[in-house]
């Protein structure tokens, strides 16, 4: 099949390369010329394990193309995927201007029957919106009765469920494929496209498909906020949230996934999607209090964690003489303290800094006068643009050198495998604040560290 994918962000790029790998002819279109030029040189705009190899293979095999020419790509395509960004507005509502722009572009280029698929996360009713925008902007012939025979289209909702860091595997082997189509014939066309993946498919109407995506993300976010609230209770009572989560998760109706207590959810999806669903609910007259609580619990994770850090690090009496140890010292309760940060991306296996907890935490610590040294395996280039005051290090050991405390923010696998004896000897004082519960508390304390984590005694 000939496919056009509009937008080369996470979803667009991964969708395009997967369909090419399955044997289709795919043109990925983006209006940012530099991005397309880089992709044509084999340079990926994001870090995603396995993506670069798969893109290169399909480009060499002449199945995958990158272009700024939307018109040409739409003309050739049978199916057009809209995979553009859907950022939040200040009031939480989803900004559909990029979706609208893509729909207008499609409208001007339609030269025969097309299936237009919304893959971006969009609120219920966006399928209708896209249809109306296209109808209004079909310049080739504005009067439907005068349009060339067959120049019509259908709009489908086919939400994406991939996670950053495991996007290729998720897209190749999704738990389910949701096809929200206006008719059976249209759905069958999508079924054909996905047939070789061999995963469960649900055919439904467009509205339901649109809501399935938000309901899924909201439910996962609910699990995270739920276990974080339980972590708070564990801290107050002396219980251990890791064991509690395990015990609860053994119930097959609940499951172990997404019950890791920590610093709360970030990234480009959960925070904006929950807000969008709250907004949609309000638009239809429903006050979704449960979702508001999920956001509220999430918002308190970082301040709570920073309080623990300050509680242990800020001296009762402000230090009169500032220890220099080679760094310019700030003012504030943490002046004179050197804090090492492990992990900057919003989660492991990605360089994505959008809504990363590191930004919030580091900014508070900097404001309190601390010197921040940090290391992340892949996100440092992106982090430098947002957090210029941080001293970036080559590895976790360099971060530890002379540090008064280590703060674990992202649970990269390599941090679990560090030589902790070496870390201890490099630190000024062996103190760890583990925001992701990656270390065994008892073992870490036995090694001589003062150790604080989330929801564990
Ligand atoms: C999420 C969903 O998992 C995907 O299914 C969905 O397709 C995607 O959003 C999207 O809407 O595009 P993603 O944001 O890439 O994927 O990352 P997740 O692995 O879901 O993690 C989200 C956040 O939750 C991270 O900040 C992570 O640290 C946090 N999290 C996750 C926890 O705090 N605890 C957990 O147990 C799991």
Question: Tags for this entry?
Answer:
single chain, 457 residues, alpha/beta, Rossmann fold, N-(1-d-carboxylethyl)-l-norvaline Dehydrogenase, domain 2, 3 domains, 19 helices, binds uridine-5'-diphosphate-glucuronic acid
Folded structure, characterized:
This protein is of the alpha/beta class. It has three domains: 2-204, NAD(P)-binding Rossmann-like Domain (Rossmann fold, 3-Layer(aba) Sandwich); 214-298, Orthogonal Bundle (N-(1-d-carboxylethyl)-l-norvaline Dehydrogenase, domain 2); 300-452, NAD(P)-binding Rossmann-like Domain (Rossmann fold, 3-Layer(aba) Sandwich), CATH 3.40.50.720. Helices cover 43% and strands 13% of the residues. The strands form three sheets. Strands 3-2-1-4-5-6 form a six-stranded parallel β-sheet, with helices on both faces. Strands 11-10-9-12-13-14 form a six-stranded parallel β-sheet. A two-stranded parallel ribbon has the order 7-8. Helix 1 (10-21) packs across helix 3 (51-60) and helix 11 (270-283) packs antiparallel against helix 12. The termini are far apart. The mean pLDDT is 94. Uridine-5'-diphosphate-glucuronic acid is lined by residues 121, 160-164, 217, 220, 224, 258-260, 262, 264-267, 269-270, 273, 346-347.
